[in-house]
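Appendix C reproduces, verbatim, an entry submitted by the partner laboratory led by Prof. M.T., so that reviewers can inspect both the input and the predicted structure.
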Amino acid sequence: MDSTNSPSTKTLYRGTQIVWYLLGLLEILLAFRFILKLLGANAGAGFTDFIYGITYVFTAPFLSVFRISKVSGSVFEWTTLLAMLVYWVIAIGIIKLFLMGKTVSTMEASVKLNEQEKK
C-alpha cells in the first residue's frame, strides 16, 4: 500500500494543521504581550488588559525563570520569549508524534532503518 493513499494520511495532515494553527494563534498573542510590555502600554486599557489576561496562563509557568528588565516604563519580558520558544518546541514534538502514526510501506521502513544505522 502506498503511504500517500493511506486513509490515515488526511487525518494526520489535518491534525498537524490544527497544531500549527493553535501554535500560530498562541505565538501571535504572546508577541502582542511582549510588544505591549516593551512599549509600556497602559495596563488599564481594554485591549492591553485583554491580552495580558488571556496570555497570563501561558506565561505563568515561566514567570520566575528570569528577572524582568525595566527601563523607564518599558518591560523586556524574557519569560514571554521563553514561553514562545517552549510552546514552539512542544508543537514540533506533537507533530513528530502525529507523523509516527503515518502508514509506511515495508520498503520505506527498511530504507529509513538503514539510514538510522549509518548515523
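The mean pLDDT is 89. Additional entries are available on request from the coordinating office.
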